[in-house]
Amino acid sequence: MEQLIIEGGQKLHGRVKISGSKNAALAILAAAIMTKERVKLHNLPNITDVRVLIAILEDLGASIRRRGRNSIELRSPGLRSYSPPYDMVKKLRASYYLMGSLLARFGRAEVPIPGGCDFGPRPIDQHLKGFSALGTDIEIEHGLVKLRAEKLKAAHIYLDVVSVGATINLMLAATAAEGQTTIENASKEPEIVDAANFLSAMGASIKGAGTDVIRIKGGRPLFSANHTIIPDRIEAGSFMIAAVATDGEIVIEEVIPKHLEAVAAKLREAGAEIELQADRVRVKRGPQLLPVDIKTFVYPGFPTDLQPLAMTLLTAAEGTSVITENVFESRFHHVDELKRMGAQIKVEGRTAIIEGGPPLTGAPVKATDLRAGAAMLVGGFMGQGRTILSGVGQIYRGYEDIEAKLTRLGARLKRIRSSFPALPGESS
Ligand code: UD1
User: Fold this and answer.
1) Which of 250, 271, 406, 424 is 20 to 30 A (C-alpha) from 140?
2) Residue 97 CA: which ligand 1 atom is closest?
3) What is the pTM assigned to this prediction?
4) What is the 3-state secondary structure of the chain?
């Protein structure tokens, strides 16, 4: 089991380059098998989730060549299976995108019910409702979602829940459905726009991505494409919060500042100085850290993925802050870990009340999921003394080169191999 030893009290200073978006990359990689022709992808983050999905695609019969650290060439003329293996799929929630892409490619998919971060129940009913509207027969047995469509047909789909995954998955399947499909109450996240841009580059006709009504004219052949993944707004937001939390000053490069407006607005409200420039952001703490209330919401609201990091930051703001988690039912596993570091936080349903002020103290803590792990890193930097973070494999799922990037900014952290075996459910 690997652990990170973090020495608290270092201020982050300098410049950091942001990698490609994890969530866009996962959708786009899954979509890349919808054509038999060659697909080139650039700015693909070198993170565990991407490597797992690449391994799944190879297992299905795709041929993937790395072209440098962040580019690949994918060809899948001889894709031989529509049934990805459970052992790999369980590691990756986004493997649900294989339902949409395999359905589009073969009219069939048999995908194990996906795993991923544990934020309480994470149903896929909206994905399935949409597939069914597109003419798919669905059976769920032995832990497998079995999808079969003689011929996908266009449909008018109204999503009951605004869902990133369902919106993208239905866009993938609808690309192969003859006629015009409309997805109403669609998610508006930038990752949806990026996935739509990639599908369009392959020859699909998609209008309205980035708004709540998306129209897809399906049934067109898909060809070779070349696409560069957008920057990861959650990685960028994580560095923004880390800079403020450590009373540092950093310039975050290669970002789309528009995607960071909700985070920038909240950090400013908390007293930080944020300059959004053409493709970079300068972040500095400011004279005093103030308590703020945050409500997570779908894009363009404050992202749920940054909620654990924001909560960690607010433990240092003198006074009461309130965080309401509107996207996921129980995304507060990091609270117990923060309490180990001395934080005073009370959770009532979807609300966390943070009494900020007293500094955190270093402690042994655990990364309970990807973003909670990032929050623990931030807590470790803020804390007095040494923090020992276990379950760090969670962090490598979504942050490329995280130790190197942080070390260059002045953080003091070291990866070690612990002599204790991993606990059940704890990846390393
Ligand atoms: C995606 C992101 C994740 C991010 C989340 C919200 C990927 C791979 N993951 O997850 O990092 O935290 O968006 O921005 O892109 N829901 C249903 N039925 C469904 C689908 C979703 O009830 O069929 C609910 C979920 O339980 C949740 C809410 O809708 O409460 C939003 O979930 P969704 O947007 O689908 O998140 P994911 O696609 O799983």
Assistant:
1) 424
2) 8
3) 0.96
4) CEEEEEECCCCCEEEEECCECHHHHHHHHHHHHHCCCCEEEECCCCCHHHHHHHHHHHHHCCEEEECCCCCEEEECCCCCCCCCCHHHHCCCHHHHHHHHHHHHHHCEEEEECCCCCCCCCCCCHHHHHHHHHCCCEEEEECCEEEEECCCCECCEEECCCCCHHHHHHHHHHHCCCEEEEEEECCCCCHHHHHHHHHHHHCCCEEECECECEEEEEECCCCCCEEEECCECHHHHHHHHHHHHHCCCEEEEECCCHHHHHHHHHHHHHCCCEEEECCCEEEEECCCCCCCCEEEECCCCCECHHHHHHHHHHHCCCCEEEEEECCCCCCCCHHHHHHHHCCCEEEEECCEEEEEECCCCECCEEECCCHHHHHHHHHHHHHCECEEEEECCHHHHCCCCCHHHHHHHCCCEEEEEECCCCCCCCCCC
